[in-house]
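#onboarding

Welcome to the new folks! Below is a worked example of what a typical request in this channel looks like: someone posts a single protein sequence, and someone else replies with the predicted structure as tokens. Don't worry about understanding the tokens yet, we'll cover that in week two.

Example request:
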Amino acid sequence: MVIGAGVDPCGRWTAETAASNSPQALQDEQWVLGYLSAAGQHGGKGADPLKGGDASAVWTWIDNYCHAHPSAHIADAAEAFNAAHGHH
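Example response:
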């Protein structure tokens, strides 16, 4: 089950991150980093989606995903990032 900012639609992520210094964008971005940090801590051996990256790279990836999938949820974008980067 997902609660918090992750249930918001990608369309909102795109709109909010386009607004300079948006408090909602900050909340959404931190939710994604928390989700991915937890995935790295609890995903098992070798599963670390944030390894070798930084926050701005994550947000750019989520920006691109959400632009392509505006009706998806932010949690869907975070899970897609995890699936693409979770095993190194």
